[in-house]
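Summary for the lay section of the report: proteins are chains of building blocks that fold into shapes. Here we show the chain for DNA-binding response regulator and then a coded description of the shape we predicted for it.
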Amino acid sequence: MIKAIIVDDEPYCCETLSILLARYCPQVEVAGVFHSGHQALESIREQKPQLLFLDIEMPRMNGFELLEKVKDLNFELIFTTSYDQYAIKAIRFSALDYLLKPIDREELQLSIQKAEQRLQAPLPQQIDLLLQKLASPTGLFSKIAIPTMEGLQMVAVDTIVHCVSDSNYTILTLKDRQKVVASRTLKEIEELLEDYSFLRVHHSNLVNLNEVNKYIKGEGGYLVMSDGSSINVSRSRKEGLLKRLQPNRP
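The coded shape description reads as follows.
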């Protein structure tokens, strides 16, 4: 059994999540339900749950502030939140898991399955990335957390040359020619990197514009990257690429 604690200031949401877990995730035992971060803090320290469902928006102490006060993050973490574009972006940036309210049964089951496979605490770097991203809305950070089959890999953004779609995975090629296979779609990687100098030039290709050496003309054409690789450009994305490469072009 997975011992879990639910922290949410809305009793209805706690009750709904508890019912969903009892019906569809019998491997999860709810050991405590708390309606504020202050109430939950001591119980987390004493009960040492394996899994924490944590609401983001709570009065007096929100979910992120609670995390800052927990010294040992020895549990899996799933955020629960109403749609908050910026908070969700920060969570994705740090490769943590979240569920949107109202919580969908199938998404909950999937999150539990992923938690079962890992059952490990978030890396300290993940929490650091999350809190830094929240504290600096427009700030760009040197590293992002990339989920892989083996776990998480912290990757310096400026070392990524290009990213190629491989079904539900994405292959990141780095400057040292190392390849990182991310357990994320190219669309998800694109969203993580949208504030940086990356551009989707083809349905299968995302490139770091700082690593483009040449653009070769053609129907769509192709790019020659700093590592010598050639990346196809789709006809529909050609104009957008040229505008980024030549910002003063009429």
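Put simply, here is one thing we learned. The chain has two domains: 2-135, 147-245.
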